[in-house]
Amino acid sequence: MPHTIEIIDDLMCVMDDDGNGHDAVVLASYREAKQQIQKWTAEFTINVADAYRQLSDYFSQR
To answer: How, if at all, do strands 2-8 and 11-15 pair?
Structure first.
Protein backbone atom coordinates (compact mmCIF):
# COMPACT_ATOMS: atom_id res chain seq x y z
CA MET A 1 0.00 0.00 0.00
CA PRO A 2 1.52 3.38 -1.00
CA HIS A 3 2.08 6.00 1.64
CA THR A 4 2.33 9.76 1.27
CA ILE A 5 4.42 12.40 2.95
CA GLU A 6 2.41 15.24 4.44
CA ILE A 7 3.87 18.39 5.93
CA ILE A 8 1.67 19.71 8.72
CA ASP A 9 2.91 22.81 10.52
CA ASP A 10 6.56 21.91 11.23
CA LEU A 11 6.06 18.12 11.08
CA MET A 12 6.74 15.75 8.22
CA CYS A 13 4.41 12.76 8.50
CA VAL A 14 4.02 9.42 6.74
CA MET A 15 0.32 8.85 6.02
CA ASP A 16 -1.56 5.86 4.61
CA ASP A 17 -4.52 5.94 2.22
CA ASP A 18 -6.95 6.14 5.15
CA GLY A 19 -5.25 9.25 6.57
CA ASN A 20 -3.61 7.43 9.46
CA GLY A 21 -0.19 8.69 10.50
CA HIS A 22 2.54 6.08 10.87
CA ASP A 23 5.53 8.22 11.84
CA ALA A 24 6.49 11.88 12.07
CA VAL A 25 9.55 14.05 12.59
CA VAL A 26 10.06 17.74 13.28
CA LEU A 27 11.44 19.55 10.25
CA ALA A 28 14.67 21.01 11.62
CA SER A 29 16.85 20.95 8.50
CA TYR A 30 16.49 20.06 4.84
CA ARG A 31 19.38 17.58 4.98
CA GLU A 32 17.99 15.72 8.00
CA ALA A 33 14.53 15.59 6.42
CA LYS A 34 15.94 14.06 3.21
CA GLN A 35 17.79 11.47 5.28
CA GLN A 36 14.57 10.62 7.12
CA ILE A 37 12.75 10.09 3.84
CA GLN A 38 15.48 7.65 2.80
CA LYS A 39 15.05 5.76 6.09
CA TRP A 40 11.30 5.62 5.61
CA THR A 41 11.65 4.17 2.10
CA ALA A 42 12.99 0.98 3.70
CA GLU A 43 9.70 0.58 5.55
CA PHE A 44 7.07 2.36 3.44
CA THR A 45 6.33 2.76 -0.28
CA ILE A 46 6.79 6.50 -0.79
CA ASN A 47 6.92 8.73 -3.86
CA VAL A 48 10.38 10.12 -3.11
CA ALA A 49 10.34 12.74 -5.87
CA ASP A 50 7.08 14.19 -4.51
CA ALA A 51 8.42 14.11 -0.95
CA TYR A 52 11.57 16.01 -2.00
CA ARG A 53 9.45 18.56 -3.87
CA GLN A 54 7.36 19.17 -0.75
CA LEU A 55 10.53 19.60 1.31
CA SER A 56 11.95 22.04 -1.19
CA ASP A 57 8.74 24.07 -1.15
CA TYR A 58 8.62 24.02 2.67
CA PHE A 59 12.21 25.13 3.20
CA SER A 60 12.09 27.76 0.43
CA GLN A 61 9.20 29.46 2.27
CA ARG A 62 11.05 29.67 5.59
So the answer is: antiparallel
